[in-house]
Design goal:
Layout lengths: L2 H64 L5 H30 L5 E5 L6 E6 L5 H15 L6 E6 L5
Parallel strand pairs: 2-3
Antiparallel strand pairs: 1-2
Helix pairs in contact: 1-2, 2-3
């Protein structure tokens, strides 16, 4: 084989290797971006599903309240449930904003209607004891939550 043919083949192989490295880098970045969007979508999707569910509950309660044939006791119970749902929605939004104000990228708070349990999902790779205490302090101060009723769950950023 001639020397010029060897140089051409070797140059082609080096070019092919460089193109492969560039594609590998691009594919890795694309996957990291997709994972990051997935984590962000978790919080967005959770909030959206929660809102949809709550709106359905409120519509059902409104239909009971507006039913002229409904028993007074049932209407009173429906009004109570509606008030509790609206109060919990306000508390959840307030707590989520307080938690995000402490430096977390995102947070979801879910207050149980019957149990009084509070679940907190925060976007954080590693939740430190200090951060958990800070979140618990917010919950305790704002809604009087006891430690037996609080669960704090970190949701890792998928980009790591």
């Amino acid at each position: 084989m001639k020397k010029s043919n060897k140089i051409i083949i070797l140059t082609g192989m080096i070019l092919l290797l460089a193109v492969t490295a560039v594609f590998n880098f691009i594919m890795t970045q694309t996957q990291a971006d997709a994972d990051s969007v997935t984590t962000a979508n978790y919080f967005t999707q959770y909030k959206s599903e929660r809102l949809t569910s709550r709106n359905e509950q409120l519509l059902q309660l409104d239909s009971i309240i507006s039913n002229e044939n409904a028993d007074t006791e049932i209407v009173t119970e429906a009004l109570s449930q509606k008030l509790l749902i609206v109060q919990n929605m306000e508390k959840e939004l307030l707590l989520e904003n307080y938690i995000k104000a402490q430096g977390f990228a995102d947070a979801v708070v879910a207050i149980g209607i019957d149990s009084g349990n509070i679940n907190v999902f925060v976007q954080d790779d590693e939740l430190t004891t200090e951060e958990a205490i800070m979140i618990y302090t917010i919950l305790n101060t704002e809604v009087g939550a006891g430690p037996e009723n609080v669960i704090i769950i970190p949701i890792e950023s998928a980009s790591n």
